[in-house]
Amino acid sequence: MKIDVVTIFPGYFDALELSLLGKAKTRGLIDVQVHDLRDSARDKHRTVDDTPSGGGAGMVMKPEPWGAALDGILSAADGSDHDPLIIFPSPAGDVFTQRMARELATESHLVFGCGRYEGIDQRVFDEYAERGRVRLVSIGDYVLNGGEVASIAMIEAIARLIPGVVGNPESLVEESHEDGLLEYPSYTKPAEWRDRAVPPVLLSGNHAAIESWRREQSIERTRRVRPELLPAELGGERRGRHAAP
Ligand code: 6GU
């Protein structure tokens, strides 16, 4: 998967060199290219923002540097058989979920456009939505200073679903959200720590009993913490195992 990122803070994306994602980059499973938006500004101060039309607080990102940066990325991709999807992280977007991560993991080229300040001039979204595929995506109901941290979260969630990125694919299956439920609690050795015992069933060697204990724990945890995720057949409001909440 090819991933381009446009940002005024390329340094944020140094985090992608670490751990599994760094290994995935080295092994060629993902190819991440980070572009400094200021390199696409034309004045000597490398200006990327201006005051809002109509007045108001804060600054808005100017369209021209975005146009130059995105045109450059799209023309480099032109003629390849990879149809890019541009994602603008935005608190006004569709909420990012595990389901969306699974969908996006099947794409061959993602472009993340990280806005700062009060946002990007609307004409940038309109221009690229007319020329190709654009999505506004939020990572939750709270406000960040810009799209960088949101992009890193999305890139990590997406990239780990690409075959080969996570060493043991079975570990992907048993996690929170993959079956629509929260994950069961995990334990390791020692069997007793500070008078706290590992639940005996986990040491029983009875695999059917362990599996049913874990499922019960998942359901109870989901009922307690995120009842809105619970499927109807488990007494919840959710319309089916993979229906949207
Ligand atoms: Cl994607 N961007 C910003 N700036 N804030 C957010 C967000 C995105 N998702 C939640 N809050």
Describe this structure in words.
This protein has helices at residues 19-26, 63-77, 98-104, 122-131, 147-159, 170-173, 207-225; strands at 2-7, 31-36, 49-50, 60-61, 85-95, 109-113, 133-138, 192-193, 196-197. By secondary structure, the chain is of the alpha/beta class. It has a five-stranded parallel beta sheet with strand order 2-1-6-5-7. It has a two-stranded antiparallel sheet with strand order 3-4. The model is unreliable at 241-245 (pLDDT under 50). Residues 89-91, 138-140, 142-144, 146-147, 150 line the site of 6-chloroguanine.
Order of helices and strands: EHEEEHEHEHEHHEEH
Query: Structural class, please?
Result: alpha/beta
**Each distinct ligand:** 6-chloroguanine
Q: What's the Cα radius of gyration?
A: 22 Å
Which ranges are low-confidence, i.e. pLDDT below 50, for 5 or more consecutive residues? 241-245
Distance between the termini: 29 Å
How would you write the strand order of the largest sheet? 2-1-6-5-7
Helix content: 25-40%
User: Biggest sheet, open or closed, and with what strands and sense?
Assistant: 5 strands, parallel
Described by the principal axes of the CA atoms, the overall outline is elongated
What does the average pLDDT come to?
94
Please report which band the strand proportion falls in: under 5%, 5-15%, 15-25%, 25-35%, 35-45% or over 45%.
15-25%
Give the assembly state of these chains.
single chain
**Discrete helix count:** 7
Number of strands: 9
